Amino acid sequence: MLVAIVDDDRLQAEELAWMVRSSPLLCRISSESSNHVSAVHASGGYSDALPVVGETGGDMSSDGVDVCCFDSLEAFERFCRDGERNVDIVFMDIRFGESAEAEGIAAVARLFPRGSATQVIYVTGYGDCHSKVYATQHVGFLMKPVVQKAVDEAVGEALRRRAESSERPVLVASGGDVRVVLPRNVMWAESHRRLLCIHTCYGDVETYLKLARFAEMLPDRFVHCHQSFLVNLDYVTAWNNDRFVLADGRAIPISQRRRAVAKAAVLAYARTVR
């Protein structure tokens, strides 16, 4: 999961990043996957308190929770256009620099139109912006100085909306057509270099898409258990450290690096008989 903070005030961005990282719901997601919450900056020279990533990019895990700070709308929009990662939750400031314009609201309207899976939480020190945000899709409005309780409540609502959104159909370009793929019908998926093959109850769908990007669009019952494989736990009948077994007898490998992630996902998904 990727949480973005867009704020040109360095200190306030860092304080918000620490509160986000401390939010119990995000900590639980992290503990169920890679046991870490990392934080990175999108532009260098910003702070010693958090690891810094240059404008050319840096490693961000597709497991667990990453918190990424952007000190300008331009940097954030470049990141979104590059399309390497979907932003799950964004904390968006409204005014930048000396401008009196609500630039953050305009950016949200451009980047995340209604129906977008990205959950927007506005953060501002200007109360007169409150009515303007309703022109865009958002789940929260926080006034500065922000307190931990408000962050926790906003994160909780964002995660609830995100879960609802992840059950919606995914539109996939395939062979000149646009296929409508329902998450509940996806049994497993595999990637071969740039080609992604989505195996559904009704046949296979091939498209050019990164497996990690597809995984970010799906509900939590999907496990990215191997660099090249993704599985829907609804169709799993058995598992061990090395593989998932599906209802049709097919074995889906679990890589050593992702064993802990796979185990945590299964235990969170299923009940245990004691």
Can you describe this structure in just a few lines?
This protein has 274 residues and is of the alpha/beta class. It contains seven helices and 16 strands. It has a six-stranded parallel beta sheet with strand order 2-3-1-4-5-6, with helices on both faces. The protein has a five-stranded antiparallel beta sheet with strand order 11-10-9-13-12.
As a whole number of angstroms, the C-alpha radius of gyration is: 19 Å
Q: Helical segment tally?
A: 7
The dominant shape is globular
Name given to the CATH homologous superfamily of the largest domain: Response regulator
Give the helices and strands as they follow along the chain.
Answer: EHHEEHEHEEHEEEEEHEEEEEH
Class of secondary structure makeup: alpha/beta
Q: Helical residue percent? A: 25-40%
Mean pLDDT: 84
Query: What is the CATH topology of the largest domain?
Result: Rossmann fold
User: What is the name of the CATH architecture of the largest domain?
Assistant: 3-Layer(aba) Sandwich
Reported for the largest beta sheet, the result is: 6 strands, parallel
Taking the alpha carbons of the first and last residues, their distance comes to 32 Å
Top keywords for this entry?
OB fold (Dihydrolipoamide Acetyltransferase, E2P), 274 residues, globular, 16 strands, 5-stranded antiparallel β-sheet, 29% strand, 7 helices, Rossmann fold, 2 domains, alpha/beta
